[in-house]
């Protein structure tokens, strides 16, 4: 009996492997052919009832998502609101502390519980250069057997641009953002997760520099590195120039969920080494800004959003990007 079971398991593994290797494998900039094949085999094993087209799309999405990861070399920085000129020009920020005594600078974000400067030391990690695309998030939901959200609205011709597949994914709750990243990790065997709040800020500030806006030059160039305030809808990802680290849309368009629970006093008790946020809470943290806001006020690198982790529906402007919690290059 045990011999027959072992033979059946072996045959299944061989057939699954052959089927996975028979489908066209996407090319990867970072992964070896063997790693791509292993991902393909896991996709075949996990989703035998999905169509071949869907399985190929899942495989391509996982490989592309890993290729899109930017390696962020760790280091130490002073996290929190480091201050700005009381009268400043967002189009020409200059270099902090702008020739002033840092103690005489004004807060960047009043009343956001980010004004307690504290030292943070981070290990190296990876962060996606892009926010998760709506089409990739749709594919994830399909793999779980879930219907597309707002399916009826998507049929309307006048709303096609609203649901453009290259726009940032809409989320209803924090958990589905978390689950998407874990899904990538399950299929790739890399420790994929949401970034921590500290990791997000460190990357937005070009590895912890005193940068007020997470753009290519630290200033706001409307229409060049960020959308103008008159824009009333999300734009497709990577519409504007990236930061010096190669990260897109860290300012404007949509916010990013991060992994942390929120506490207004957390900065005062945060550990120095790789802080992960409070152990418990009732609200989660979002970072960045979205298309509904005035960018000169909100699109900075230090502002924190405390938000309910569950919304009434999927909403544009509330998105996420994944990270790989590993200090080793892919």
What does this structure look like?
Residues 66-312 form the Sulfatase-modifying factor enzyme-like domain. One of its GO terms (molecular function) is formylglycine-generating oxidase activity. The protein folds into two domains: 1-67, no CATH class; 70-324, paralog of FGE (formylglycine-generating enzyme), CATH 3.90.1580. The strands form four sheets. The chain has a four-stranded antiparallel beta sheet. The protein has a four-stranded mixed beta sheet with strand order 9-8-7-11. The chain has a two-stranded antiparallel sheet with strand order 2-3. It has 330 residues and is of the alpha+beta class. The radius of gyration is 21 Å and the shape is globular. α3 (52-67) crosses α4. It is built from nine helices and twelve strands. The chain is 29% helix and 15% strand.
Based on the model shown, name its key terms.
330 residues; alpha+beta; paralog of FGE (formylglycine-generating enzyme); 9 helices; 12 strands; globular; disordered N terminus
Quick structural overview:
Residues 1-22 form the signal peptide. By secondary structure, the chain is an alpha+beta fold.
- And the CATH topology of the largest domain? paralog of FGE (formylglycine-generating enzyme)
What order do the SSEs take from the amino end to the carboxyl end, as H and E? HHHEEEEHHEHEHEHEHEEEE
Give the strand tally.
12
* Strand-pairing-aware structural class: alpha+beta
Q: Order of strands in the sheet with the most strands?
A: 1-4-12-6
| Count of discrete structural domains | 2
Treating each run of at least 4 consecutive H or I residues as one helix, how many helices?
9
CATH class term of the largest domain: Alpha Beta
Keywords: Signal
InterPro entries: CTDL_fold, Sulfatase_Mod_Factor_Kinase, SUMF_dom, SUMF_sf
Protein name: Formylglycine-generating enzyme, required for sulfatase activity, contains SUMF1/FGE domain
GO molecular function: formylglycine-generating oxidase activity
């Amino acid at each position: 009996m045990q011999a027959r079971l072992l033979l059946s398991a072996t045959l299944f593994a061989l057939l699954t492997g052959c089927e996975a290797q028979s489908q066209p494998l996407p090319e990867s900039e970072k992964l070896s052919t063997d790693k791509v094949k292993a991902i393909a085999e896991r996709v075949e094993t996990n989703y035998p009832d999905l169509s071949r087209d869907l399985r190929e799309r899942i495989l391509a999405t996982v490989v592309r998502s890993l290729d899109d990861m930017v390696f962020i070399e760790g280091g130490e920085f002073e996290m929190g609101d480091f201050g700005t000129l009381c009268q400043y020009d967002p189009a020409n920020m200059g270099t902090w502390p702008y020739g002033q005594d840092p103690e005489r600078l004004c807060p960047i974000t009043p009343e956001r519980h980010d004004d307690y400067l504290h030292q943070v030391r981070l290990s190296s990690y990876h962060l996606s250069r892009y926010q998760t695309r709506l089409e990739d998030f749709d594919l994830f939901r399909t793999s779980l057997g879930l219907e597309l959200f707002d399916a009826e609205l998507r049929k309307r011709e006048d709303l096609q641009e609203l649901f453009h597949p290259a726009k940032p994914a809409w989320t209803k709750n924090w958990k589905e953002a978390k689950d998407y990243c874990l899904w990538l990790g399950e299929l790739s065997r890399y420790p994929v997760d949401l970034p921590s709040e500290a990791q997000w800020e460190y990357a937005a500030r070009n590895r912890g520099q005193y940068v007020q806006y997470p753009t290519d030059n630290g200033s706001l160039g409307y229409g060049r590195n960020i959308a103008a305030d008159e824009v009333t809808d999300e734009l497709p990802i990577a519409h504007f120039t990236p930061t010096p680290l190669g990260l897109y849309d860290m300012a404007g368009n949509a916010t990013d969920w991060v992994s942390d629970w929120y506490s207004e006093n957390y900065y005062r008790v945060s550990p120095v080494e790789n802080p992960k946020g409070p152990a418990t809470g009732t609200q989660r943290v979002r970072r960045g800004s979205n298309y509904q806001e005035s960018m000169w006020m909100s699109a900075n690198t230090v502002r924190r959003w405390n938000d309910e982790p569950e919304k009434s529906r999927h909403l544009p402007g509330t998105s996420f990007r994944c990270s790989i919690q590993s200090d080793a290059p892919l």
